[in-house]
Design brief:
The protein contains three helices and six strands. The chain is of the alpha+beta class. Strands 1-2-3-5-4 form a five-stranded mixed β-barrel. A hairpin with a 5-residue loop joins strand 4 and strand 5 (about 110-115). The longest helix is centred in the N-terminal third of the chain and has 16 residues, at about 1-15. It is globular, with a radius of gyration of 19 Å. The N and C termini lie far apart (about 70 Å).
Length: about 140
């Protein structure tokens, strides 16, 4: 019996040791509080996956080219508790996102809020601070 238990433990270590793990991160590990952003565009894809949801937005840059931005939101459970479900936003919805830019400079950010065309504001939860920092005086 003891050998069987040891065998199961060894198998579990081998199995899980080689499995990639998606890690959760703090806001400051990936995003820059000194780089708030406001983007307006069209929702093209929405991934409700743990530990964060991802919103893909087509944003037109200053040169007229369309860039797909990835915006991190809270976990699916957190979004649902905040009233944001798959039925809240249809693909193709025009919206504005308020949040913070990624430190690595890519077209990625963390969303704090979505603003819809009718003025409704949806809180996205997640790691973004709830209020934008005050500008230095």
């Amino acid at each position: 019996m003891r050998m069987r238990l040891v065998g199961v433990c060894v198998a579990a270590v081998v199995l899980f040791n080689g499995t990639p793990v998606s890690s959760h991160h703090a806001f400051s590990a990936e995003f820059d509080i000194a780089k708030p952003l406001t983007l307006s565009g069209k929702l093209v894809k929405w991934e409700m996956i743990n530990p964060h949801s991802w919103f893909h937005l087509d944003i037109e840059d200053d040169a007229g080219a369309v860039v797909t931005w990835l915006i991190e939101g809270g976990s699916p459970n957190e979004l649902i508790r905040n009233g944001v479900t798959k039925n809240t936003l249809a693909i193709g919805t025009q919206l504005t996102v308020e949040g913070y830019h990624a430190k690595d400079g890519t077209a990625k950010g963390v969303g704090r809020n979505f603003l819809l065309a009718d003025g409704e504001r949806l809180f996205l939860g997640g790691s973004a601070p709830p209020v934008a920092p005050a500008a230095p005086q």
